[in-house]
Amino acid sequence: MSHTAHIPSHRKPRQRASKSALRAGVAGGFLSTIAVAGAAGPAQAEPVTQTIEMPTIASNFSAAAAASAQATQQLALDIEKQADQDAAAAKAAKDAKKAHAEAVRKDEAKKKAEAAEKKAEAAEKKAKAEAEAKERAERASRSTERTTLSASTGSSGSSSSGSSASAPSSSSSSNVSGSAASIVAFAKAQVGDAYVSGGTGPNAWDCSGLVQAAYRTANIDLPRVSQAQSTAGTQVSLDNLQPGDILYWGGAGSAYHVAIYVGGGQFVGAQNSSTGTVQRSMDYDRPTGAVRVL
After folding, report:
1. Predicted TM-score (pTM) of this structure
2. Residue 217: CB partners within 8 Å, gap ≥ 6?
3. What percent of the chain shows pLDDT beyond 70?
4. Residue 167 near residue 156, CB atoms below 8 Å
5. Closest Cα to residue 183, out of 284, 265, 269, 103?
6. For residue 288, which of 206, 210, 223, 227 has the smallest C-alpha distance?
7. How far from chain centre, in Å, is Cα 130?
8. Measured by CB atoms within 10 angstroms of the end CB, which terminus of the chain is less buried, N or C?
Protein backbone atom coordinates (compact mmCIF):
# COMPACT_ATOMS: atom_id res chain seq x y z
CA MET A 1 0.00 0.00 0.00
CA SER A 2 1.46 3.35 -1.00
CA HIS A 3 2.24 5.91 1.76
CA THR A 4 1.11 8.84 -0.36
CA ALA A 5 -2.35 7.52 -0.69
CA HIS A 6 -3.06 8.13 3.05
CA ILE A 7 -1.83 11.78 3.24
CA PRO A 8 -4.64 14.27 2.83
CA SER A 9 -4.15 17.18 0.56
CA HIS A 10 -3.61 20.70 2.12
CA ARG A 11 -5.06 22.66 -0.73
CA LYS A 12 -8.42 24.31 -0.34
CA PRO A 13 -11.12 23.58 -2.72
CA ARG A 14 -11.44 25.97 -5.61
CA GLN A 15 -14.86 26.93 -4.64
CA ARG A 16 -13.65 28.27 -1.35
CA ALA A 17 -10.89 30.19 -3.07
CA SER A 18 -13.37 31.90 -5.32
CA LYS A 19 -15.51 32.89 -2.34
CA SER A 20 -12.48 34.42 -0.62
CA ALA A 21 -11.63 36.35 -3.73
CA LEU A 22 -15.17 37.64 -3.95
CA ARG A 23 -15.10 38.77 -0.36
CA ALA A 24 -11.76 40.49 -0.86
CA GLY A 25 -13.07 42.27 -3.91
CA VAL A 26 -16.18 43.55 -2.17
CA ALA A 27 -14.14 44.77 0.77
CA GLY A 28 -11.64 46.48 -1.47
CA GLY A 29 -14.33 48.19 -3.44
CA PHE A 30 -16.03 49.51 -0.28
CA LEU A 31 -12.74 50.90 1.05
CA SER A 32 -11.99 52.47 -2.30
CA THR A 33 -15.36 54.19 -2.23
CA ILE A 34 -14.71 55.57 1.22
CA ALA A 35 -11.30 56.83 0.17
CA VAL A 36 -12.67 58.60 -2.87
CA ALA A 37 -15.44 60.22 -0.85
CA GLY A 38 -12.94 61.43 1.73
CA ALA A 39 -10.67 62.85 -0.92
CA ALA A 40 -13.52 64.74 -2.57
CA GLY A 41 -14.21 66.70 0.69
CA PRO A 42 -17.39 68.10 2.17
CA ALA A 43 -17.87 70.75 -0.55
CA GLN A 44 -18.63 68.07 -3.12
CA ALA A 45 -21.09 66.15 -0.91
CA GLU A 46 -24.71 66.25 -2.05
CA PRO A 47 -27.58 66.39 0.53
CA VAL A 48 -29.52 63.25 0.91
CA THR A 49 -33.27 63.71 0.76
CA GLN A 50 -35.37 60.88 2.09
CA THR A 51 -39.19 60.78 1.99
CA ILE A 52 -40.92 58.63 4.54
CA GLU A 53 -44.31 57.49 3.64
CA MET A 54 -46.73 57.04 6.63
CA PRO A 55 -49.13 54.26 6.39
CA THR A 56 -52.61 55.41 5.26
CA ILE A 57 -55.36 55.16 7.98
CA ALA A 58 -57.90 52.79 6.87
CA SER A 59 -61.36 54.29 6.09
CA ASN A 60 -63.13 52.02 8.55
CA PHE A 61 -60.90 53.30 11.39
CA SER A 62 -61.80 56.93 10.50
CA ALA A 63 -65.51 56.12 10.53
CA ALA A 64 -65.20 54.40 13.89
CA ALA A 65 -63.36 57.40 15.37
CA ALA A 66 -65.98 59.82 14.02
CA ALA A 67 -68.77 57.68 15.41
CA SER A 68 -67.06 57.55 18.79
CA ALA A 69 -66.68 61.35 18.88
CA GLN A 70 -70.32 61.83 17.91
CA ALA A 71 -71.40 59.37 20.59
CA THR A 72 -69.31 61.21 23.18
CA GLN A 73 -70.83 64.55 22.17
CA GLN A 74 -74.34 63.10 22.28
CA LEU A 75 -73.65 61.65 25.71
CA ALA A 76 -72.51 65.05 26.94
CA LEU A 77 -75.66 66.64 25.53
CA ASP A 78 -77.81 63.96 27.15
CA ILE A 79 -76.10 64.52 30.50
CA GLU A 80 -76.58 68.29 30.23
CA LYS A 81 -80.20 67.84 29.21
CA GLN A 82 -80.81 65.48 32.12
CA ALA A 83 -79.19 67.96 34.51
CA ASP A 84 -81.49 70.73 33.21
CA GLN A 85 -84.51 68.47 33.59
CA ASP A 86 -83.49 67.54 37.14
CA ALA A 87 -83.02 71.22 38.05
CA ALA A 88 -86.40 72.10 36.51
CA ALA A 89 -88.06 69.25 38.36
CA ALA A 90 -86.48 70.34 41.66
CA LYS A 91 -87.62 73.94 41.09
CA ALA A 92 -91.12 72.80 40.17
CA ALA A 93 -91.29 70.66 43.32
CA LYS A 94 -90.11 73.60 45.44
CA ASP A 95 -92.64 75.95 43.81
CA ALA A 96 -95.40 73.38 44.27
CA LYS A 97 -94.53 72.97 47.94
CA LYS A 98 -94.54 76.75 48.41
CA ALA A 99 -97.85 77.08 46.57
CA HIS A 100 -99.36 74.32 48.69
CA ALA A 101 -98.25 76.02 51.89
CA GLU A 102 -99.68 79.32 50.68
CA ALA A 103 -102.95 77.64 49.74
CA VAL A 104 -103.16 76.03 53.18
CA ARG A 105 -102.47 79.39 54.83
CA LYS A 106 -105.14 81.13 52.76
CA ASP A 107 -107.61 78.36 53.45
CA GLU A 108 -107.02 78.64 57.19
CA ALA A 109 -107.35 82.43 57.02
CA LYS A 110 -110.57 82.05 55.04
CA LYS A 111 -111.97 79.61 57.59
CA LYS A 112 -111.07 81.95 60.44
CA ALA A 113 -112.66 84.88 58.62
CA GLU A 114 -115.80 82.86 57.93
CA ALA A 115 -115.97 81.77 61.56
CA ALA A 116 -115.54 85.37 62.72
CA GLU A 117 -118.18 86.51 60.24
CA LYS A 118 -120.63 83.86 61.43
CA LYS A 119 -119.95 84.83 65.02
CA ALA A 120 -120.54 88.49 64.19
CA GLU A 121 -123.75 87.63 62.34
CA ALA A 122 -124.96 85.60 65.28
CA ALA A 123 -124.16 88.47 67.66
CA GLU A 124 -125.89 90.92 65.32
CA LYS A 125 -128.97 88.71 65.09
CA LYS A 126 -129.05 88.37 68.85
CA ALA A 127 -128.70 92.12 69.35
CA LYS A 128 -131.37 92.76 66.73
CA ALA A 129 -133.73 90.29 68.37
CA GLU A 130 -133.13 91.90 71.75
CA ALA A 131 -133.68 95.36 70.28
CA GLU A 132 -136.89 94.23 68.59
CA ALA A 133 -138.11 92.67 71.83
CA LYS A 134 -137.29 95.85 73.70
CA GLU A 135 -139.02 97.95 71.06
CA ARG A 136 -142.13 95.77 71.21
CA ALA A 137 -142.16 96.11 74.98
CA GLU A 138 -141.74 99.87 74.71
CA ARG A 139 -144.49 100.11 72.11
CA ALA A 140 -146.78 98.06 74.30
CA SER A 141 -145.95 100.34 77.22
CA ARG A 142 -146.62 103.43 75.09
CA SER A 143 -149.92 102.00 73.94
CA THR A 144 -150.89 101.41 77.55
CA GLU A 145 -149.87 104.94 78.46
CA ARG A 146 -151.87 106.35 75.58
CA THR A 147 -154.96 104.39 76.62
CA THR A 148 -154.55 105.55 80.19
CA LEU A 149 -153.94 109.09 78.99
CA SER A 150 -157.15 109.15 76.95
CA ALA A 151 -159.17 108.01 79.95
CA SER A 152 -157.52 110.43 82.38
CA THR A 153 -157.77 113.36 79.98
CA GLY A 154 -161.51 112.86 79.57
CA SER A 155 -162.15 112.77 83.30
CA SER A 156 -159.83 115.68 84.13
CA GLY A 157 -161.26 117.81 81.36
CA SER A 158 -164.77 117.60 82.80
CA SER A 159 -163.75 118.29 86.41
CA SER A 160 -161.17 121.05 86.02
CA SER A 161 -161.87 124.67 85.07
CA GLY A 162 -158.28 125.86 84.49
CA SER A 163 -154.65 125.35 85.11
CA SER A 164 -155.12 125.64 88.87
CA ALA A 165 -156.76 122.19 88.96
CA SER A 166 -154.06 119.54 88.64
CA ALA A 167 -153.78 115.79 88.74
CA PRO A 168 -150.67 113.72 89.44
CA SER A 169 -148.92 112.21 86.42
CA SER A 170 -147.49 108.72 86.66
CA SER A 171 -144.75 109.63 84.16
CA SER A 172 -143.58 112.91 85.69
CA SER A 173 -142.18 114.15 88.97
CA SER A 174 -144.46 117.21 88.74
CA ASN A 175 -148.21 117.49 88.95
CA VAL A 176 -149.59 117.98 85.44
CA SER A 177 -153.12 119.09 84.67
CA GLY A 178 -155.48 118.90 81.73
CA SER A 179 -153.98 119.52 78.31
CA ALA A 180 -150.43 119.62 79.68
CA ALA A 181 -150.83 116.05 80.95
CA SER A 182 -151.93 114.92 77.49
CA ILE A 183 -148.98 116.64 75.80
CA VAL A 184 -146.39 115.31 78.26
CA ALA A 185 -147.77 111.77 78.20
CA PHE A 186 -147.78 111.68 74.39
CA ALA A 187 -144.21 112.98 74.17
CA LYS A 188 -142.94 110.39 76.66
CA ALA A 189 -144.74 107.62 74.83
CA GLN A 190 -142.64 108.35 71.72
CA VAL A 191 -139.27 107.91 73.46
CA GLY A 192 -137.32 105.33 71.49
CA ASP A 193 -138.87 106.22 68.12
CA ALA A 194 -136.56 106.99 65.23
CA TYR A 195 -135.54 110.45 64.09
CA VAL A 196 -136.24 111.18 60.44
CA SER A 197 -135.98 114.64 58.91
CA GLY A 198 -139.53 115.70 58.01
CA GLY A 199 -140.99 112.82 60.05
CA THR A 200 -144.48 113.32 61.52
CA GLY A 201 -145.04 109.88 63.05
CA PRO A 202 -146.34 107.55 64.05
CA ASN A 203 -142.96 105.87 64.68
CA ALA A 204 -140.51 108.38 63.23
CA TRP A 205 -140.27 112.11 63.95
CA ASP A 206 -138.28 115.22 63.54
CA CYS A 207 -138.21 117.76 66.42
CA SER A 208 -141.05 120.04 65.31
CA GLY A 209 -143.14 117.12 64.02
CA LEU A 210 -143.12 115.56 67.51
CA VAL A 211 -144.06 118.86 69.22
CA GLN A 212 -146.88 119.46 66.73
CA ALA A 213 -148.29 115.93 67.19
CA ALA A 214 -148.10 116.20 71.00
CA TYR A 215 -150.11 119.45 71.01
CA ARG A 216 -152.71 117.92 68.70
CA THR A 217 -153.66 115.56 71.53
CA ALA A 218 -154.78 118.69 73.37
CA ASN A 219 -156.62 119.96 70.25
CA ILE A 220 -154.04 122.70 69.69
CA ASP A 221 -152.70 123.26 66.20
CA LEU A 222 -149.13 124.53 66.11
CA PRO A 223 -147.07 125.68 63.11
CA ARG A 224 -145.08 122.87 61.46
CA VAL A 225 -141.52 124.23 61.73
CA SER A 226 -139.38 124.99 64.78
CA GLN A 227 -138.83 128.66 63.83
CA ALA A 228 -142.57 129.37 64.01
CA GLN A 229 -143.12 127.18 67.07
CA SER A 230 -140.52 129.20 69.02
CA THR A 231 -142.84 132.24 68.82
CA ALA A 232 -146.22 130.45 69.02
CA GLY A 233 -146.87 131.46 72.65
CA THR A 234 -145.61 133.59 75.48
CA GLN A 235 -141.88 133.68 76.15
CA VAL A 236 -141.10 132.36 79.66
CA SER A 237 -137.92 132.11 81.71
CA LEU A 238 -136.08 128.78 81.90
CA ASP A 239 -136.27 129.15 85.67
CA ASN A 240 -140.09 129.26 85.59
CA LEU A 241 -140.97 126.31 83.35
CA GLN A 242 -144.12 124.21 83.49
CA PRO A 243 -144.71 120.74 81.96
CA GLY A 244 -145.88 121.15 78.36
CA ASP A 245 -143.84 124.28 77.65
CA ILE A 246 -141.97 124.34 74.32
CA LEU A 247 -138.18 124.59 74.63
CA TYR A 248 -136.19 125.97 71.72
CA TRP A 249 -132.53 126.24 70.73
CA GLY A 250 -131.40 129.27 68.75
CA GLY A 251 -133.14 132.63 68.59
CA ALA A 252 -136.90 133.12 68.99
CA GLY A 253 -138.24 133.06 65.44
CA SER A 254 -135.03 131.51 64.13
CA ALA A 255 -134.83 128.38 66.30
CA TYR A 256 -133.19 125.31 64.79
CA HIS A 257 -134.50 122.80 67.35
CA VAL A 258 -137.48 122.37 69.69
CA ALA A 259 -138.55 119.94 72.42
CA ILE A 260 -141.20 119.57 75.15
CA TYR A 261 -140.52 120.22 78.81
CA VAL A 262 -141.93 117.26 80.79
CA GLY A 263 -141.11 118.45 84.33
CA GLY A 264 -138.41 117.49 86.78
CA GLY A 265 -135.78 119.43 84.82
CA GLN A 266 -136.14 117.11 81.81
CA PHE A 267 -137.35 117.34 78.24
CA VAL A 268 -138.43 114.97 75.48
CA GLY A 269 -137.34 115.64 71.92
CA ALA A 270 -136.53 114.01 68.60
CA GLN A 271 -132.86 114.82 68.71
CA ASN A 272 -131.07 113.33 65.69
CA SER A 273 -130.66 110.16 63.61
CA SER A 274 -128.10 108.75 66.05
CA THR A 275 -130.14 109.05 69.25
CA GLY A 276 -133.71 109.16 67.92
CA THR A 277 -136.40 110.39 70.30
CA VAL A 278 -135.02 110.67 73.84
CA GLN A 279 -135.76 112.01 77.30
CA ARG A 280 -132.85 114.02 78.65
CA SER A 281 -131.95 116.38 81.47
CA MET A 282 -131.82 120.01 80.47
CA ASP A 283 -128.17 119.95 81.58
CA TYR A 284 -127.53 117.56 78.70
CA ASP A 285 -128.20 120.34 76.19
CA ARG A 286 -129.26 123.65 77.71
CA PRO A 287 -132.01 125.32 75.59
CA THR A 288 -131.95 128.96 74.61
CA GLY A 289 -135.51 129.83 75.65
CA ALA A 290 -139.04 128.58 76.18
CA VAL A 291 -142.58 129.33 75.03
CA ARG A 292 -145.81 128.69 76.93
CA VAL A 293 -148.82 127.94 74.71
CA LEU A 294 -151.30 126.58 77.27
Report:
1. 0.45
2. 149, 153, 182, 183, 185, 186
3. 64
4. yes
5. 269
6. 227
7. 33
8. N
